[in-house]
Amino acid sequence: MTTPDNHQEKVIHIQATWGARCNKLLIMSSVADPSIGSIALPVEEGRKSLWNKTREAFRYIYDHHLEEYDWFFKADDDTYVVVENLRYFLYPYSPQLPIYFGSKFRYPEYVKQGYFSGGAGYVLSREAVRRFNEQALGDVQHCSAAYDTEDLEMGKCMESVNVTAGDSRDSLGRKRFLPMEPVFHLTSSVTEDPDFWYNQYSYYEPFYAE
């Protein structure tokens, strides 16, 4: 997910690093740029359009690539992914399971099972993408296009079609998906402050290394 202003500033670096290790990298923008091969989605740019942009991106995936791949990872243009680790994590799970993974936040008044931070990226199984397109997008009551909080809305849509928000932590309880830069997650004055917003919204208790 990117914008025209970031095509040469950020996208080219994704293509040269972790993006090159994906089976297929789709650059979702609002402009078709031949220099990076971006896809022009029928949306306006801006934060208020991010949710509809995400909806259109998954609609494009469903229409063109659903049966070609097992997992579909949504990332912004400031996200970095260790693709080999992502493959290793996903290996035990069948793409036929209605499940998705990411950095889980909690908002029980809105999404009981939790939802995943857009900043850390989240990965949907093939079945999750199928249900999102075939069931959720047509349900304006539970999956409306009228809102602008992308990650929270995705969580609401997934819950409405019984797609499980999976646990992506490792066997020691450490998080695999991180929504901020690494130094943030290593700063004890932040990670151990119960009043800090990240700890308040985190679905799981912070992990403290001994």
Account of the 3D structure:
By secondary structure, this protein is an alpha/beta fold. It has one domain (5-201): Spore Coat Polysaccharide Biosynthesis Protein SpsA, Chain A (Alpha-Beta Complex), CATH 3.90.550. Helix content is 32%, strand content 13%. The protein is built from eight helices and eight strands; from the N terminus they run αββαβαββββααβααα. The strands form three sheets. It has a four-stranded mixed sheet. It has a two-stranded parallel sheet with strand order 1-2. α2 crosses α4 and α2 crosses α5. The radius of gyration is 17 Å and the shape is globular. The chain starts with 6 loop residues before the first helix and ends in a 9-residue tail after the last helix. The mean pLDDT is 91.
What are its keywords?
single chain, 210 residues, alpha/beta, Spore Coat Polysaccharide Biosynthesis Protein SpsA, Chain A, 4-stranded mixed sheet, two-stranded parallel ribbon, 8 helices, globular, transmembrane, membrane, manganese ion binding, transferase, nucleotide binding
